[in-house]
Amino acid sequence: MGVLKRILDFYIQSSIHVALAVFAFIRVTEFLFYLLPNPYTAGFGFFGTIVGYNFVKYDALARSGRPKMSTRLKLFIAVSFVAFWGAAYCFFHLKPLTQIVSGLCLLVTAFYTLPFFPNKRNARSWSGLKIYIVSLCWVGVTVALPVLDAGIDWTTDFLLVSAKRFILVVVLLFIFEIIDLAWDDPHLKTVPQQIGVKNTKKLGVFLLVIFLLLELFQLTESIPRFVGNIVVIFTTSGFLYFAHEKRSRYYSTFWAESIPIVMWLVGLVFQRIF
């Protein structure tokens, strides 16, 4: 059991699980816009997420002087190194406009992580900003990239899907912020820190209702998609309702982060049935 736990911890901490969630969201976008699967946008999203998330998580450690290079840290660096070359390979197979958008997402990640200002504070330390930066990056990578690379115009459908994806990621981040309440710096001013856990859950449910209303605007010839989104809304609501600061971090970092993968699997099932 100890070996399985170590493998699971490495899988989560090396950002492979969150990268799979991004990959799944890209596949969901392809379902929504009836796109052929594109291995390069999906691959760039997967590998780029590993690089980006590991950069955010371990950059401060690397710049702290001479960090102790444990075996686990060396493995994280190895995974990130392989992912970097995977992301680079996929990047050069993207269309020029898609490359520009992906470059902007990279720039936002760097801005979020590195201290560009004299006080050496990065955007990550700005009160209340983290959740919106992360959500925008997810929308950029999982919606804008596959749509742009397919040569599809940014129509009303694109805006609605982007808005729904932003809402869903924000609500998922609410779950993370509730679980991390005991560890987060009070100066971060996360949503639960500012309005409390109970009100955060109410706000999350309200946002999911908006998600559902936006879905109604896209119901034309897509009842299966609507049913799939109902499943996702109830699943997300359940995770949000039962979240509290004494929960294990696996609750958010593994289970809640699996919701995009559930969306993808539901999409695959409906694709086969209909």
**How far apart lie the N and C ends?**
41 Å
Mean pLDDT, nearest integer? 85
Secondary-structure class: mainly alpha
| Number of beta-strand segments | 0
Note the total helix count: 12
Helix content: over 70%
Approximately what portion of the residues adopt beta-strand conformation?
Answer: under 5%
N-to-C order of helices and strands: HHHHHHHHHHHH
Largest sheet: none
- Taking pLDDT < 50 over at least 5 consecutive residues as the criterion, the unreliable ranges are none
- State Rg: 19 Å
Which word captures the global form?
Answer: globular
List keywords for this structure.
274 residues; mainly alpha; 12 helices
Task: Give an overview of the whole structure.
The protein has 274 residues and is mostly helical. 73% of the residues lie in helices and 0% in strands. The protein has helices at 2-13, 16-32, 39-62, 71-91, 96-113, 130-149, 156-179, 191-195, 197-216, 223-241, 250-255, 259-273. Helix 9 (197-216) runs antiparallel to helix 10 (223-241). The chain is globular. It starts with a helix and ends with a helix. The mean pLDDT is 85.
